[in-house]
Amino acid sequence: MTTVASSGGVAFVEAAPAKINLYLHVTGRRADGYHCLDSLVVFAGAGDVLHYEPGDAPLTLKLAGRFGAVLDEAAAGPDNLVMKAANALRTLAGPQATVRGGTLVLEKNLPVASGIGGGSADAAAALRLLDRVWNIQAGQVNLLRLAEGLGADVPVCLLSHSARMEGIGEVLGAAPILPECGLVLVNCGQAVSTPAVFRAREGGFVPRAELPTHWDGARELADTLQTLENSLEAPACVLCPTVEKVLSDLATQPECLMARMSGSGATCFGLFPSAHEAEQAAARLADAHEAWWVWGGALREGV
Ligand SMILES: C[C@](O)(CO)[C@H](O)COP(=O)(O)OP(=O)(O)OC[C@H]1O[C@@H](n2ccc(N)nc2=O)[C@H](O)[C@@H]1O
Ligand SMILES: Nc1ncnc2c1ncn2[C@@H]1O[C@H](COP(=O)(O)OP(=O)(O)OP(=O)(O)O)[C@@H](O)[C@H]1O
Protein backbone atom coordinates (compact mmCIF):
# COMPACT_ATOMS: atom_id res chain seq x y z
CA MET A 1 0.00 0.00 0.00
CA THR A 2 1.40 3.38 -0.98
CA THR A 3 1.42 6.12 1.64
CA VAL A 4 1.17 9.57 0.17
CA ALA A 5 3.53 11.90 2.00
CA SER A 6 3.18 15.59 1.36
CA SER A 7 4.34 18.93 2.59
CA GLY A 8 2.40 22.16 2.15
CA GLY A 9 0.11 20.43 -0.37
CA VAL A 10 3.02 19.13 -2.51
CA ALA A 11 2.78 15.33 -2.91
CA PHE A 12 6.09 13.52 -2.46
CA VAL A 13 4.98 10.49 -4.43
CA GLU A 14 4.54 9.94 -8.15
CA ALA A 15 3.08 7.02 -10.10
CA ALA A 16 5.11 5.50 -12.94
CA PRO A 17 2.47 3.59 -14.92
CA ALA A 18 3.28 0.76 -17.30
CA LYS A 19 3.26 1.68 -21.00
CA ILE A 20 1.65 -0.72 -23.47
CA ASN A 21 2.10 -0.59 -27.25
CA LEU A 22 -1.27 -1.81 -28.62
CA TYR A 23 0.45 -2.04 -32.00
CA LEU A 24 3.95 -1.07 -33.05
CA HIS A 25 4.99 -0.69 -36.67
CA VAL A 26 8.64 -0.24 -37.54
CA THR A 27 8.18 2.15 -40.46
CA GLY A 28 11.81 2.91 -41.31
CA ARG A 29 15.34 3.27 -40.05
CA ARG A 30 17.34 6.47 -39.57
CA ALA A 31 20.96 6.91 -40.61
CA ASP A 32 22.01 6.72 -36.93
CA GLY A 33 20.46 3.23 -36.61
CA TYR A 34 17.38 4.25 -34.61
CA HIS A 35 14.10 2.95 -35.98
CA CYS A 36 11.08 5.05 -36.99
CA LEU A 37 7.95 3.82 -35.29
CA ASP A 38 4.19 4.19 -35.44
CA SER A 39 2.53 3.00 -32.24
CA LEU A 40 -0.65 3.44 -30.24
CA VAL A 41 0.50 3.69 -26.64
CA VAL A 42 -1.77 3.31 -23.61
CA PHE A 43 -1.08 3.18 -19.89
CA ALA A 44 -2.24 0.57 -17.38
CA GLY A 45 -3.25 0.79 -13.74
CA ALA A 46 -0.09 -1.26 -12.97
CA GLY A 47 3.11 0.65 -12.32
CA ASP A 48 6.16 1.51 -10.25
CA VAL A 49 5.89 4.22 -7.57
CA LEU A 50 8.53 6.84 -6.83
CA HIS A 51 8.72 8.40 -3.36
CA TYR A 52 10.84 11.36 -2.24
CA GLU A 53 12.05 12.02 1.29
CA PRO A 54 13.69 15.46 1.39
CA GLY A 55 16.97 15.79 3.28
CA ASP A 56 20.22 17.75 3.28
CA ALA A 57 22.54 14.92 2.19
CA PRO A 58 23.14 14.54 -1.57
CA LEU A 59 20.28 12.83 -3.40
CA THR A 60 20.44 8.99 -3.31
CA LEU A 61 18.19 6.26 -4.67
CA LYS A 62 16.90 3.19 -2.81
CA LEU A 63 15.21 0.28 -4.56
CA ALA A 64 12.22 -1.53 -3.06
CA GLY A 65 9.28 -3.65 -4.26
CA ARG A 66 9.05 -7.09 -5.89
CA PHE A 67 11.59 -6.26 -8.63
CA GLY A 68 13.81 -3.89 -6.61
CA ALA A 69 16.36 -6.66 -6.06
CA VAL A 70 16.54 -7.39 -9.80
CA LEU A 71 18.18 -4.03 -10.33
CA ASP A 72 21.49 -4.57 -8.52
CA GLU A 73 23.45 -2.11 -6.35
CA ALA A 74 25.08 -0.57 -9.41
CA ALA A 75 21.64 0.08 -10.89
CA ALA A 76 20.80 2.35 -7.94
CA GLY A 77 23.77 4.55 -8.89
CA PRO A 78 24.01 7.37 -11.43
CA ASP A 79 23.18 4.98 -14.31
CA ASN A 80 19.68 4.43 -13.03
CA LEU A 81 17.29 6.32 -15.26
CA VAL A 82 15.78 7.97 -12.18
CA MET A 83 19.13 9.47 -11.18
CA LYS A 84 19.85 10.43 -14.80
CA ALA A 85 16.51 12.26 -14.86
CA ALA A 86 17.26 14.00 -11.54
CA ASN A 87 20.69 15.10 -12.78
CA ALA A 88 19.31 16.34 -16.10
CA LEU A 89 16.66 18.40 -14.29
CA ARG A 90 19.24 19.84 -11.86
CA THR A 91 21.41 20.89 -14.81
CA LEU A 92 18.43 22.52 -16.52
CA ALA A 93 17.51 24.38 -13.31
CA GLY A 94 21.02 25.87 -13.09
CA PRO A 95 23.13 26.74 -10.04
CA GLN A 96 20.75 29.42 -8.78
CA ALA A 97 17.94 26.89 -8.13
CA THR A 98 17.50 25.66 -4.54
CA VAL A 99 17.56 21.94 -5.12
CA ARG A 100 17.34 19.83 -1.95
CA GLY A 101 18.94 16.42 -1.50
CA GLY A 102 17.38 13.48 0.29
CA THR A 103 16.29 10.00 -0.70
CA LEU A 104 14.28 8.76 -3.64
CA VAL A 105 12.68 5.36 -3.03
CA LEU A 106 11.71 3.50 -6.18
CA GLU A 107 9.06 0.86 -5.55
CA LYS A 108 9.80 -1.43 -8.48
CA ASN A 109 6.56 -3.31 -9.16
CA LEU A 110 7.12 -3.80 -12.90
CA PRO A 111 9.46 -6.45 -14.30
CA VAL A 112 12.77 -5.06 -15.60
CA ALA A 113 13.64 -4.99 -19.34
CA SER A 114 10.16 -6.19 -20.17
CA GLY A 115 8.75 -3.92 -22.93
CA ILE A 116 6.37 -1.97 -20.72
CA GLY A 117 8.71 0.96 -20.23
CA GLY A 118 9.57 0.42 -16.56
CA GLY A 119 12.79 2.43 -16.57
CA SER A 120 11.28 5.03 -18.91
CA ALA A 121 8.21 5.43 -16.70
CA ASP A 122 10.49 5.81 -13.65
CA ALA A 123 12.58 8.49 -15.37
CA ALA A 124 9.43 10.34 -16.43
CA ALA A 125 8.02 10.10 -12.89
CA ALA A 126 11.29 11.52 -11.52
CA LEU A 127 11.04 14.51 -13.90
CA ARG A 128 7.43 15.23 -12.86
CA LEU A 129 8.06 14.69 -9.13
CA LEU A 130 11.30 16.65 -8.81
CA ASP A 131 10.11 19.48 -11.05
CA ARG A 132 7.25 19.85 -8.54
CA VAL A 133 9.01 19.34 -5.20
CA TRP A 134 12.05 21.39 -6.22
CA ASN A 135 9.67 24.04 -7.57
CA ILE A 136 11.61 24.32 -10.84
CA GLN A 137 8.53 24.74 -13.04
CA ALA A 138 10.52 23.85 -16.14
CA GLY A 139 7.39 23.70 -18.33
CA GLN A 140 6.27 20.82 -20.52
CA VAL A 141 8.37 21.76 -23.56
CA ASN A 142 11.59 21.69 -21.51
CA LEU A 143 10.60 18.52 -19.67
CA LEU A 144 9.82 16.79 -23.00
CA ARG A 145 13.24 17.85 -24.30
CA LEU A 146 14.93 16.35 -21.21
CA ALA A 147 12.79 13.21 -21.60
CA GLU A 148 13.91 12.78 -25.22
CA GLY A 149 17.53 12.78 -24.09
CA LEU A 150 16.84 10.00 -21.59
CA GLY A 151 15.30 7.42 -23.95
CA ALA A 152 12.84 6.90 -26.79
CA ASP A 153 9.97 5.90 -24.48
CA VAL A 154 10.48 8.65 -21.87
CA PRO A 155 8.52 11.45 -23.68
CA VAL A 156 5.32 9.38 -23.92
CA CYS A 157 5.81 8.23 -20.31
CA LEU A 158 6.13 11.88 -19.28
CA LEU A 159 2.61 12.48 -20.65
CA SER A 160 1.41 9.14 -19.17
CA HIS A 161 -1.77 9.16 -21.17
CA SER A 162 -2.71 7.37 -24.37
CA ALA A 163 -0.98 8.77 -27.45
CA ARG A 164 -0.03 8.03 -31.04
CA MET A 165 3.76 7.77 -30.94
CA GLU A 166 5.88 8.36 -34.04
CA GLY A 167 9.39 9.45 -35.03
CA ILE A 168 11.70 7.38 -32.82
CA GLY A 169 9.31 8.04 -29.93
CA GLU A 170 9.48 11.83 -29.68
CA VAL A 171 6.58 12.72 -32.04
CA LEU A 172 3.45 12.48 -29.92
CA GLY A 173 -0.08 13.02 -31.21
CA ALA A 174 -3.59 12.46 -29.94
CA ALA A 175 -4.79 8.86 -29.77
CA PRO A 176 -8.25 7.93 -31.03
CA ILE A 177 -10.86 7.94 -28.24
CA LEU A 178 -10.57 4.57 -26.54
CA PRO A 179 -13.53 2.46 -25.44
CA GLU A 180 -13.95 0.89 -22.01
CA CYS A 181 -11.81 -2.25 -21.95
CA GLY A 182 -9.70 -4.45 -19.70
CA LEU A 183 -6.09 -5.49 -20.00
CA VAL A 184 -4.12 -8.45 -18.72
CA LEU A 185 -0.32 -8.12 -18.67
CA VAL A 186 1.87 -11.24 -18.45
CA ASN A 187 5.64 -11.46 -18.19
CA CYS A 188 7.38 -14.85 -18.12
CA GLY A 189 10.38 -13.58 -16.15
CA GLN A 190 13.00 -13.46 -18.91
CA ALA A 191 14.56 -10.04 -19.46
CA VAL A 192 14.73 -9.07 -23.14
CA SER A 193 17.17 -6.45 -24.39
CA THR A 194 15.56 -3.74 -26.56
CA PRO A 195 18.62 -3.22 -28.85
CA ALA A 196 18.97 -7.00 -29.32
CA VAL A 197 15.33 -7.28 -30.47
CA PHE A 198 15.69 -4.38 -32.93
CA ARG A 199 18.89 -6.03 -34.24
CA ALA A 200 17.17 -9.43 -34.64
CA ARG A 201 14.33 -7.94 -36.70
CA GLU A 202 14.20 -9.23 -40.28
CA GLY A 203 12.21 -8.09 -43.30
CA GLY A 204 11.14 -4.70 -44.54
CA PHE A 205 9.20 -1.87 -43.03
CA VAL A 206 5.49 -1.64 -42.27
CA PRO A 207 3.33 1.35 -43.30
CA ARG A 208 1.87 3.82 -40.84
CA ALA A 209 -1.55 2.58 -39.65
CA GLU A 210 -4.90 4.08 -40.69
CA LEU A 211 -6.87 4.63 -37.47
CA PRO A 212 -10.47 5.74 -36.88
CA THR A 213 -11.21 8.71 -34.62
CA HIS A 214 -12.79 6.43 -31.99
CA TRP A 215 -14.00 2.89 -31.33
CA ASP A 216 -17.51 2.05 -30.16
CA GLY A 217 -16.36 -0.83 -27.97
CA ALA A 218 -13.46 -3.11 -27.05
CA ARG A 219 -14.49 -5.58 -29.79
CA GLU A 220 -14.17 -2.87 -32.48
CA LEU A 221 -10.80 -1.85 -31.06
CA ALA A 222 -9.65 -5.50 -31.23
CA ASP A 223 -10.90 -5.77 -34.84
CA THR A 224 -8.71 -2.81 -35.84
CA LEU A 225 -5.71 -4.04 -33.86
CA GLN A 226 -5.96 -7.48 -35.54
CA THR A 227 -5.22 -5.77 -38.87
CA LEU A 228 -2.04 -4.25 -37.36
CA GLU A 229 1.02 -5.83 -35.71
CA ASN A 230 3.91 -5.48 -33.35
CA SER A 231 6.88 -5.65 -35.73
CA LEU A 232 9.12 -6.66 -32.81
CA GLU A 233 7.04 -9.69 -31.75
CA ALA A 234 8.61 -12.19 -34.19
CA PRO A 235 12.24 -11.31 -33.34
CA ALA A 236 11.43 -11.30 -29.60
CA CYS A 237 9.93 -14.81 -29.95
CA VAL A 238 13.24 -15.98 -31.41
CA LEU A 239 15.18 -14.52 -28.46
CA CYS A 240 12.57 -15.59 -25.88
CA PRO A 241 10.45 -18.51 -27.18
CA THR A 242 8.25 -18.50 -24.04
CA VAL A 243 6.53 -15.39 -25.48
CA GLU A 244 4.60 -17.75 -27.82
CA LYS A 245 3.34 -19.79 -24.84
CA VAL A 246 2.32 -16.58 -23.02
CA LEU A 247 0.46 -15.37 -26.12
CA SER A 248 -1.44 -18.64 -26.56
CA ASP A 249 -2.33 -18.85 -22.85
CA LEU A 250 -3.64 -15.28 -22.99
CA ALA A 251 -5.54 -15.77 -26.26
CA THR A 252 -7.34 -18.88 -24.95
CA GLN A 253 -8.70 -17.13 -21.83
CA PRO A 254 -12.50 -16.75 -21.90
CA GLU A 255 -13.52 -13.35 -23.31
CA CYS A 256 -9.98 -12.51 -24.52
CA LEU A 257 -10.43 -10.42 -27.67
CA MET A 258 -6.80 -10.53 -28.77
CA ALA A 259 -3.27 -11.04 -27.41
CA ARG A 260 -0.06 -9.33 -28.49
CA MET A 261 3.41 -8.50 -27.20
CA SER A 262 4.14 -4.94 -25.98
CA GLY A 263 7.22 -2.97 -27.11
CA SER A 264 10.34 -5.09 -27.42
CA GLY A 265 8.93 -7.73 -25.03
CA ALA A 266 8.73 -10.02 -23.35
CA THR A 267 5.54 -8.72 -21.65
CA CYS A 268 2.35 -9.54 -23.57
CA PHE A 269 -1.12 -8.10 -23.14
CA GLY A 270 -4.58 -9.54 -23.59
CA LEU A 271 -7.46 -7.20 -24.44
CA PHE A 272 -10.78 -7.85 -22.67
CA PRO A 273 -14.25 -6.24 -22.83
CA SER A 274 -13.97 -4.98 -19.24
CA ALA A 275 -11.61 -4.68 -16.27
CA HIS A 276 -13.66 -7.31 -14.42
CA GLU A 277 -13.10 -9.97 -17.09
CA ALA A 278 -9.41 -9.01 -17.23
CA GLU A 279 -9.06 -9.42 -13.45
CA GLN A 280 -10.66 -12.87 -13.62
CA ALA A 281 -8.37 -13.99 -16.44
CA ALA A 282 -5.34 -12.61 -14.56
CA ALA A 283 -6.28 -14.59 -11.44
CA ARG A 284 -6.54 -17.81 -13.49
CA LEU A 285 -3.19 -17.21 -15.21
CA ALA A 286 -1.45 -16.35 -11.93
CA ASP A 287 -2.77 -19.58 -10.38
CA ALA A 288 -1.54 -21.63 -13.31
CA HIS A 289 1.92 -19.98 -13.55
CA GLU A 290 3.34 -19.01 -10.17
CA ALA A 291 6.63 -17.82 -11.69
CA TRP A 292 4.96 -15.41 -14.10
CA TRP A 293 4.20 -11.77 -13.30
CA VAL A 294 0.53 -11.23 -14.05
CA TRP A 295 -1.62 -8.12 -13.73
CA GLY A 296 -5.24 -7.53 -14.76
CA GLY A 297 -7.39 -4.41 -14.64
CA ALA A 298 -8.43 -1.26 -16.46
CA LEU A 299 -6.52 1.24 -18.50
CA ARG A 300 -5.24 4.07 -16.37
CA GLU A 301 -7.93 6.61 -15.50
CA GLY A 302 -7.96 9.73 -17.63
CA VAL A 303 -6.87 8.07 -20.88
C1 LIG B 1 10.40 -0.51 -28.35
C2 LIG B 1 9.84 0.65 -27.53
O1 LIG B 1 9.64 0.25 -26.19
C3 LIG B 1 8.48 1.05 -28.11
O2 LIG B 1 7.73 1.88 -27.25
C4 LIG B 1 10.78 1.85 -27.54
O3 LIG B 1 11.00 2.28 -28.85
C5 LIG B 1 12.09 1.56 -26.83
O4 LIG B 1 12.33 2.69 -26.04
P1 LIG B 1 13.55 2.75 -24.98
O5 LIG B 1 13.63 1.46 -24.26
O6 LIG B 1 13.34 4.02 -24.22
O7 LIG B 1 14.75 2.83 -25.98
P2 LIG B 1 16.16 3.59 -25.81
O8 LIG B 1 16.69 3.33 -24.46
O9 LIG B 1 16.05 4.99 -26.31
O10 LIG B 1 16.99 2.78 -26.90
C6 LIG B 1 17.50 1.48 -26.68
C7 LIG B 1 17.96 0.93 -28.01
O11 LIG B 1 16.83 0.48 -28.78
C8 LIG B 1 17.00 0.77 -30.15
N1 LIG B 1 15.93 1.67 -30.58
C9 LIG B 1 15.12 2.30 -29.67
C10 LIG B 1 14.10 3.11 -30.10
C11 LIG B 1 13.92 3.29 -31.50
N2 LIG B 1 12.93 4.06 -31.96
N3 LIG B 1 14.72 2.67 -32.38
C12 LIG B 1 15.73 1.86 -31.95
O12 LIG B 1 16.44 1.28 -32.76
C13 LIG B 1 18.38 1.37 -30.29
O13 LIG B 1 19.26 0.30 -30.57
C14 LIG B 1 18.67 1.91 -28.91
O14 LIG B 1 20.05 1.97 -28.64
N1 LIG C 1 14.71 2.60 -13.01
C1 LIG C 1 14.98 1.56 -13.83
N2 LIG C 1 14.11 0.56 -13.96
C2 LIG C 1 14.36 -0.46 -14.81
N3 LIG C 1 15.46 -0.58 -15.53
C3 LIG C 1 16.37 0.40 -15.44
C4 LIG C 1 16.17 1.52 -14.59
N4 LIG C 1 17.23 2.32 -14.71
C5 LIG C 1 18.06 1.73 -15.58
N5 LIG C 1 17.57 0.58 -16.04
C6 LIG C 1 18.18 -0.30 -17.06
O1 LIG C 1 17.40 -0.18 -18.26
C7 LIG C 1 17.25 -1.46 -18.90
C8 LIG C 1 15.88 -1.51 -19.56
O2 LIG C 1 14.91 -1.65 -18.54
P1 LIG C 1 13.38 -1.23 -18.73
O3 LIG C 1 12.63 -1.92 -17.64
O4 LIG C 1 13.24 0.22 -18.87
O5 LIG C 1 13.09 -1.91 -20.14
P2 LIG C 1 11.80 -2.04 -21.00
O6 LIG C 1 10.63 -2.31 -20.12
O7 LIG C 1 12.11 -3.05 -22.08
O8 LIG C 1 11.63 -0.63 -21.62
P3 LIG C 1 11.01 -0.21 -22.98
O9 LIG C 1 9.60 -0.74 -23.03
O10 LIG C 1 11.08 1.28 -22.83
O11 LIG C 1 11.89 -0.79 -24.04
C9 LIG C 1 17.45 -2.51 -17.82
O12 LIG C 1 18.25 -3.55 -18.31
C10 LIG C 1 18.12 -1.78 -16.65
O13 LIG C 1 19.45 -2.23 -16.42
From TrEMBL:
Organism encoding this protein: Acetobacter peroxydans
Binding residues annotated for ATP, in chain numbering: P111, V112, A113, S114, G115, I116, G117, G118, G119, S120, A121
Protein name: 4-diphosphocytidyl-2-C-methyl-D-erythritol kinase
Functional pathway: Isoprenoid biosynthesis; isopentenyl diphosphate biosynthesis via DXP pathway; isopentenyl diphosphate from 1-deoxy-D-xylulose 5-phosphate: step 3/6
Enzyme active site: K19, D153
Reaction equation(s) it catalyzes: 4-CDP-2-C-methyl-D-erythritol + ATP = 4-CDP-2-C-methyl-D-erythritol 2-phosphate + ADP + H(+)
InterPro entries, alphabetized: GHMP_kinase_C_dom, GHMP_kinase_C_sf, GHMP_kinase_N_dom, IspE, Ribosomal_Su5_D2-typ_SF, Ribsml_uS5_D2-typ_fold_subgr
SUPFAM superfamilies cross-referenced by the UniProt entry: GHMP Kinase, C-terminal domain, Ribosomal protein S5 domain 2-like
Keyword Ligase: no
EC identifiers of the protein: 2.7.1.148
GHMP kinase N-terminal domain ranges (all copies): 80-160
Keywords carried by this UniProt record: ATP-binding, Isoprene biosynthesis, Kinase, Nucleotide-binding, Transferase
GO biological process: isopentenyl diphosphate biosynthetic process, methylerythritol 4-phosphate pathway; terpenoid biosynthetic process
Protein's job: Catalyzes the phosphorylation of the position 2 hydroxy group of 4-diphosphocytidyl-2C-methyl-D-erythritol.
GO molecular function, one term: ATP binding
Originating gene: ispE
Superkingdom in the source lineage: Bacteria
Keyword Kinase: yes
Domain named GHMP kinase C-terminal: residues: 226-288
One Pfam family recorded for the sequence: GHMP_kinases_C
Family under the similarity heading: Belongs to the GHMP kinase family. IspE subfamily.
